[in-house]
């Protein structure tokens, strides 16, 4: 039967995570991390968590979240994960769990069910072909999982595809042409530096021009906090950003994103910002970098040129309820 989550299910869910979940590519978790990332996350709710029980044993679960404080959460419910034991892994059980979650979203007045990076419940997965290196979130459902095709058959569509890209920083050296490019750009008044609030102006305006709610919340705050934030500058005006720069506990170099305000595009700032980011992440002790980019995003050529490789592709999923 399908029923709502109770705290007594936590242990069985963790066991499923560390067996069937890791077979899907998720990173293994301790109880402490499972609680931090899922069952005791601020956006976790039993209203959007359902378990599949057979003969008294939990053999699957689905979790989602929603809320007006989440980007687009006033109209969307977000699917965080759906995990079934090997014995219970079927199209019918997938349908039953998803239907329960979708009904809960409808009851809450949501009109879409989605799997996107806007979901604040960030669940780590292991990057294929690496010594256990992790990425801290997924923007959709991996194309190599049966769940991807099952969701398509249940009325979801791919709004886009995102490529996961990876670089081992031990192998990274900045190409010589980057210095030449920086010199040429400097003659035109463009350069990259660590953000200094006493010298640089227009950070908030630049981020606002990029029209990304997550960046608008994170980047100005990082600047005010004095974090290691790299900015692309036209003279002393903030024209772009990347960072903040620091290694996560996993050894991954943190990557919030990279953007250049529209009025400053076409001068090479995006490329220079990215190479400076890789230099700085390696300097502060990051072991590797991983990131997502749209399958059709021209920026992926910058990443490929820096030595990144595509390691997995995800479908960003959306269903009208």
Would you count the extended β strands for me? Answer: 15
Shape: elongated
| SSE-based structural type | alpha+beta
Range of helix content: 25-40%
With helices defined by DSSP (H or I, 4 residues minimum), what is the helix count?
9
- What integer value in Å does the Rg equal? 21 Å
Explain how this protein is built.
- The chain has 321 residues and is of the alpha+beta class.
- The protein contains nine helices and 15 strands.
- The protein has helices at residues 10-23, 31-39, 91-107, 146-153, 176-187, 203-210, 213-224, 269-283, 300-305; strands at 2-4, 49-54, 57-65, 76-84, 112-115, 125-126, 134-135, 141-142, 157-168, 190-194, 230-234, 237-242, 258-260, 288-294, 309-320.
- Strands 1, 2, 3, 4, 5, 8, 9, 14 and 15 form a nine-stranded mixed beta sheet that branches. Strands 10-11-12-13 form a four-stranded antiparallel beta sheet, with helices on both faces. Strands 6-7 form a two-stranded antiparallel ribbon.
- Strand 6 and strand 7 form a beta hairpin.
- Helix 6 packs antiparallel against helix 7.
- The longest helix is centred in the first third of the chain and has 17 residues, at 91-107.
- The radius of gyration is 21 Å and the shape is elongated.
- The protein starts with a strand and ends with a strand.
- The mean pLDDT is 96.
């Amino acid at each position: 039967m399908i029923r709502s989550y109770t705290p007594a299910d936590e242990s069985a869910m963790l066991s499923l995570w560390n067996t069937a979940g890791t077979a899907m590519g998720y990173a293994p978790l301790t109880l402490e991390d499972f609680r931090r990332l899922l069952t005791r996350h601020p956006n976790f709710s039993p209203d959007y968590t359902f378990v599949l029980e057979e003969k008294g044993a939990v053999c699957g679960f689905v979790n989602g979240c929603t809320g007006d404080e989440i980007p687009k959460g006033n109209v969307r419910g977000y699917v965080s994960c759906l995990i079934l034991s090997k014995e219970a892994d079927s199209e019918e059980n997938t349908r039953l769990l998803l239907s329960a979650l979708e009904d809960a979203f409808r009851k809450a007045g949501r009109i879409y069910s989605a799997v996107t990076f806007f979901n604040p419940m960030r669940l780590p997965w292991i990057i294929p072909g690496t010594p256990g290196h992790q990425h801290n979130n997924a923007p959709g459902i991996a194309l190599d999982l049966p769940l991807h095709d099952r969701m398509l058959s249940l009325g979801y569509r791919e709004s886009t595809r995102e490529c996961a890209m990876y670089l081992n920083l031990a192998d990274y050296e900045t190409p010589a042409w980057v210095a030449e490019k920086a010199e040429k750009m400097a003659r035109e008044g463009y350069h990259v530096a660590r953000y200094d609030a006493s010298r640089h102006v227009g950070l908030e305006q630049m981020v606002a021009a990029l029209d990304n709610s997550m960046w608008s919340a994170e980047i100005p705050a990082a600047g005010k906090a004095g974090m290691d934030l790299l900015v692309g500058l036209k003279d002393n005006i903030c024209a772009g950003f990347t960072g903040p720069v620091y290694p996560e506990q996993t050894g991954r170099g943190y990557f919030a994103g990279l953007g250049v305000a529209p009025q400053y595009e076409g001068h090479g700032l995006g490329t220079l910002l990215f190479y400076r980011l890789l230099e700085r992440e390696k300097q502060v002790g990051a072991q590797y970098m991983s990131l997502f980019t749209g399958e059709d995003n021209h920026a992926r050529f910058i990443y490929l040129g820096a030595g990144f490789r595509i390691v997995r592709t995800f479908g960003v999923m959306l269903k009208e309820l």
